[in-house]
# Entry
Amino acid sequence: MKNLIIAIDGPSGAGKGTLARTLAARLKYRHVDTGAMYRSVAWKAANDGLPLDDEAAITALAERAVLEQADGVITIDGQDVTRAIRTPEADKAAAAVARLPRVREVLVARQRALGANGAVVMEGRDIGTVVFPNADMKIYLDASAAERARRRASDTAHTGGQGTLATVQSELVARDKTDSTRAVAPLTLATDAVYIDTTEMPIEVVVHHVLMLLSDKLLD
# Structure
């Protein structure tokens, strides 16, 4: 079976994480959550008292940080931040850090190294357009803002059980705008990506659909 590079992009709440983790487990591939890398760096910067617009300082932090993802646990410099980086505050901090070109250069280089040998499912917002433009399979997951907000509001890891559905949706829409309008590596649909709207599609159906798309490529 061929070791593929599978790129999964899309906005928050579309189901990227669930799809990526499930595919990686089924295929026995490595799963890389690139958003968690930006979140971890942003968390560390805030924890160290660094301004989130200090590009030089945060770039240096990203260069020296030890970032690890294994068995659902995310650490930076040995500290478990799995839960700490899944909050509304972390969303905003990650979006701010992700706008910094030099930070992106550092983390994109790391992401390319992680996926260089294939057998990887990598999720994010610029995987198929910037990190691996020649990925073997590109998937762009989307869903209506209302449905994505409903999913996010029910995920207490992200909301802590706080905030109304309207507030969560407003924050998601704001994040969408930030990600899609940033100057460097904006969230966009790659011309050769398979677009999947998951608004009314159970995750099991999404997984089955993607595995069918991959079946021929896996046997090449």
